[in-house]
């Protein structure tokens, strides 16, 4: 025995790219029109991405946060309305609603899947609720059966925050085929990326057309007389971004297949480590792209968790602390916050209080590694926690 602490050999790099992305960039360059109104890359990407997710109605935008904003706007969100969001999520989920003048209402999540809790969601619905926003955490679908019923009974819209859920499936259907709007992100760490970018899928052409106007300063595609029909902003994706994303989409299925093989192995190994609880899976989510490999260490302090993450990184494992509860971020309270205290929200979000304090996640490129690397990750974590 060398006595040296275990480490992990280098994982595949992210982003992954090759001649397909290079060819796309040259194709976009050579067409001589680099914005969506003159070129063909964005239009083609929308058709391909929409078809992949089960709908002919997709809109490409500048980034994932803007995807949420455009979607919320066309769903009628604005001053005087409320949007129900999981309290455990990246803060764009709530800020998108707050930027439109709405109030974001944080609710608790399921302790096993980390997705929005249907019972907590139903309890939060008021006559001002306009949208319920489930987040498909780390690629695990929220309980869409229960949420669909809650939304239908209340007469409100569902907006899927699918920033982690490219290619994910709920009972055989992808996000675009579930009858509600879904918003995606292509930020640098996402499952497919061009550095930034976003997309929204819609269940019908009319809503997509209203979103098109909103994302292009209220101006119809064929307008030549500056007849801006509605309010909006410039959220248009450029041709180079779309060209890269077309190549990235073509890589996605193969990568998901590898992650779906690696996660059950890694999760089983992590579960054997005393005190470690991997994120669970609702089997109705029958395809999970695994944007993050997530696990909890119940009872760990936040200071100790930070030390564990630092130690994992030092030994070759790309690890991160989990999202902070949105109501414990100063930015959440700057506009559109509910008339409650932090302590009051925390009291009705006990699961979020646990998860945001004791959860760790690993970059999805770890799940593109070898089977041996899954064993190595577990060995490193066990050693770190025992130290």
TrEMBL record:
InterPro entries: DegT/StrS_aminotransferase, PyrdxlP-dep_Trfase, PyrdxlP-dep_Trfase_major, PyrdxlP-dep_Trfase_small. Keywords: Pyridoxal phosphate. The keyword Mitochondrion does not apply. It comes from the Bacteria. One of its GO terms (biological process) is polysaccharide biosynthetic process. It holds the Pfam family DegT_DnrJ_EryC1. The active site is at 190 (proton acceptor). The modification N6-(pyridoxal phosphate)lysine is found at residue 190. Gene3D superfamilies: Aspartate Aminotransferase, domain 1, Type I PLP-dependent aspartate aminotransferase-like (Major domain). The keyword Zinc-finger does not apply. Belongs to the DegT/DnrJ/EryC1 family. This is Orf(+7). The lineage of its organism: Bacteria, Bacillati, Actinomycetota, Actinomycetes, Micromonosporales.
């Amino acid at each position: 025995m060398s006595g040296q602490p275990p480490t992990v050999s280098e994982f595949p790099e992210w982003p992954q790219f090759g001649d397909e992305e290079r060819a796309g960039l040259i194709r976009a360059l050579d067409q001589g029109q680099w914005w969506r109104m003159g070129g063909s890359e964005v239009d083609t990407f929308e058709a391909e991405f929409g078809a992949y997710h089960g709908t002919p109605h997709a809109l490409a935008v500048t980034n994932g946060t803007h995807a949420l904003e455009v979607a919320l706007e066309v769903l009628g969100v604005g001053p005087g309305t409320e949007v129900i969001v999981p309290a455990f999520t990246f803060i764009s989920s709530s800020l998108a609603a707050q930027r439109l003048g709405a109030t974001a209402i944080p609710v608790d999540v399921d302790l096993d899947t980390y997705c929005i809790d249907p019972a907590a969601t139903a309890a939060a619905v008021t006559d001002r609720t306009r949208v319920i926003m489930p987040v498909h955490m780390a690629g695990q679908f929220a309980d869409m059966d229960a949420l669909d019923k809650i939304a239908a009974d209340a007469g409100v819209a569902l907006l899927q925050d699918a920033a982690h859920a490219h290619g994910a499936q709920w009972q055989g259907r992808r996000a675009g085929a579930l009858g509600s709007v879904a918003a995606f992100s292509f930020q640098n760490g996402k499952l497919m990326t061009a550095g930034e970018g976003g997309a929204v899928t819609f269940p019908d052409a009319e809503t997509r057309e209203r979103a098109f106007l909103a994302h292009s300063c209220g101006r119809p595609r064929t307008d030549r007389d500056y007849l801006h029909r509605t309010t909006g902003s410039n959220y248009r994706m450029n041709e180079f971004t779309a060209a890269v994303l077309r190549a990235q989409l073509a890589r996605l299925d193969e990568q998901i297949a590898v992650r779906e093989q690696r996660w059950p192995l890694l999760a089983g190994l992590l579960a054997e480590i005393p005190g470690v609880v991997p994120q669970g899976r609702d089997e109705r989510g029958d395809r999970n792209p695994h944007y993050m490999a997530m696990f909890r260490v119940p009872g760990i302090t936040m200071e100790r968790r930070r030390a564990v993450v630092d130690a994992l990184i030092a030994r070759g494992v790309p690890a991160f602390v989990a999202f902070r509860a949105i109501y414990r971020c100063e930015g959440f309270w700057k506009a559109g916050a509910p008339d409650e205290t932090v302590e009051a929200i925390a009291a009705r979000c006990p699961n979020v209080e646990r998860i945001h304090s004791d959860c760790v996640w690993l970059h999805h490129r770890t799940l593109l590694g070898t089977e041996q690397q899954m064993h190595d990750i577990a060995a490193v974590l066990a050693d770190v926690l025992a130290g």
